[in-house]
C-alpha cells in the first residue's frame, strides 16, 4: 500500500515536471529579419561561388590537358609518318 | 508564416537536381523548426542564426546524396543540425549559459508581475538544469517539447528505437527531478 502511494506520488511529480518542461521549452519563431538574412546567406553563399569557380577552373584544366594530349598524339603520328615516308624516298 | 502546401517528394527530387527554388520551399517549411532546435541547443540567437544557415548550406550542398530510405527529410536535416551543434560545443572550451536577454518571453498578460518574476527565475533555473544535461538528453527534450514529436519520430532522428527513446526520456525526467530536488526548486508553482 505504502509502495503504491509512493509510486503515485512519484508519477505526480514527473507529471508536474512534464508540465513545467512544456512551459519552459516552447517553440519560438525567428524574426522575419533573421529568416530573410538566412535566405540571402543560403542563396548567395560566398563559399558556393568559390566552389563553382573552382569547378570552372577544373574544367578549363581538363580541356587544356585534353587538347595538349591530343596534339602530342597527332605530332607523334605525323613524325612517325614523315619518318617512314622519308626513308622510302631516300 | 503560412505553410505552403506541396508534395515534398516532388520538391525533393527537383531540389536534388539543383533547383534552388525547390530548395527554397523546403527551407521555408523547415527553417523555424531547425532554428528552434539550434537555439535551444546553443542558447543564443547569434549562434543559432549562424548554425541554422550552415545547416541549410550543408543540406543544399549534399542534397544530391540524400536518398529516401525511410528517413524523412526533416530527420536528415535534424541530424545535420545535431552534428553541427555537437561540433560547435566541441569547439567551445566551456558551455555558454543562455543570456537572459535571449530567453524567450513566455509570460502571459494576466499574471501578477511579482509572480511572473518568481516564475521566470524558476524557468531560468530549469533551463540551466536542462542545459547541463548530456547533449543527447537535451535533444530528446527539445524534440519532444519544442517540436512536439512522438517517440517514434525522435527515434528516427536520434537513430534509436521507440522503446529506447521512451526509456531515455524516463531516465531524463528522473535525473531532472533529482536535480530540482537538490536545488530546492518547487514544481508546484504552475
Keywords:
heterodimer, A: 90 residues, mainly alpha, 3 helices, 88% helix, B: 190 residues, Rna Polymerase Sigma Factor, Chain: A, Arc Repressor Mutant, subunit A, 2 domains, 8 helices, elongated
Can you tell me about this structure?
- The complex is a heterodimer of chains A (90) and B (190).
- Chain A has 90 residues and is mainly α.
- Chain A is 88% helix and 0% strand.
- In chain A, 8% of the residues are buried.
- Chain B is elongated and about 55 Å long.
- Chain B has 190 residues and is mainly α.
- Chain B folds into two domains: 96 residues, Rna Polymerase Sigma Factor, Chain: A; 76 residues, Arc Repressor Mutant, subunit A.
- Chain B is built from eight helices and no strands.
- In chain B, helix 1 crosses helix 2.
- About 9% of the residues of chain B have low confidence.
- Classes of the chains: A mainly alpha (90), B mainly alpha (190).
- Chains A and B meet through helix 1 and helix 2 of A and helix 2, helix 3, helix 5, helix 6 and helix 8 of B.
State the order of secondary-structure elements of chain B, H for helix, E for strand: HHHHHHHH
How would a textbook summarize the main sheet of chain B? Answer: none
- Provide the low-confidence segments of chain B as ranges: 97-101, 105-116
Tally the helices of chain A: 3
Globally, the shape of chain A reads rod-shaped
Number of E-state strands of chain B: 0
| Rg over C-alpha atoms of chain A, rounded to the nearest angstrom | 37 Å
CATH architecture verdict of the largest domain in chain B: Orthogonal Bundle
Listing every helix as H and every strand as E from the N terminus to the C terminus, the arrangement of chain A reads HHH
CATH class of the largest domain in chain B: Mainly Alpha
Amino acid at each position: 500500500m505504502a509502495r503504491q502511494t509512493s509510486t503515485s506520488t512519484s508519477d505526480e511529480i514527473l507529471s508536474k515536471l512534464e508540465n513545467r518542461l512544456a512551459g519552459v521549452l516552447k517553440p519560438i519563431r525567428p524574426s522575419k529579419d533573421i529568416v530573410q538574412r538566412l535566405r540571402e546567406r543560403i542563396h548567395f553563399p560566398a563559399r558556393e561561388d568559390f566552389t563553382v569557380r573552382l569547378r570552372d577552373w577544373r574544367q578549363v584544366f581538363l580541356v587544356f590537358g585534353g587538347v595538349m594530349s591530343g596534339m602530342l598524339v597527332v605530332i607523334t603520328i605525323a613524325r612517325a609518318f614523315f619518318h617512314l615516308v622519308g626513308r622510302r624516298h631516300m | 508564416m503560412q505553410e505552403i502546401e506541396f508534395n515534398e517528394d516532388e520538391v525533393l527530387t527537383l531540389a536534388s537536381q539543383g533547383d534552388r527554388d525547390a530548395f527554397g520551399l523546403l527551407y521555408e517549411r523547415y527553417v523555424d523548426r531547425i532554428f528552434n532546435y539550434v537555439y535551444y541547443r546553443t542558447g543564443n540567437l547569434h549562434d543559432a542564426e549562424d548554425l541554422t544557415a550552415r545547416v541549410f548550406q550543408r543540406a543544399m550542398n549534399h542534397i544530391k546524396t540524400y536518398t529516401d530510405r525511410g528517413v524523412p527529410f526533416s530527420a536528415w536535416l535534424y541530424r545535420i543540425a545535431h552534428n553541427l551543434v555537437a561540433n560547435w560545443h566541441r569547439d567551445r572550451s566551456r558551455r555558454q549559459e543562455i543570456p537572459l536577454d535571449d530567453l524567450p518571453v513566455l509570460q502571459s498578460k494576466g499574471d501578477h508581475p511579482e509572480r511572473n518574476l518568481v516564475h521566470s527565475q524558476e524557468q531560468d533555473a530549469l533551463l540551466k538544469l536542462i542545459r547541463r544535461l548530456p547533449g543527447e538528453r537535451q535533444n530528446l527534450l527539445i524534440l519532444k517539447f519544442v517540436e512536439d514529436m512522438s517517440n517514434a519520430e525522435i527515434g528516427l532522428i536520434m537513430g534509436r528505437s521507440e522503446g529506447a527513446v521512451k526509456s531515455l526520456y524516463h531516465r531524463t525526467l528522473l535525473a531532472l527531478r533529482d536535480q530540482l530536488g537538490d536545488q530546492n526548486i518547487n514544481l508546484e508553482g504552475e
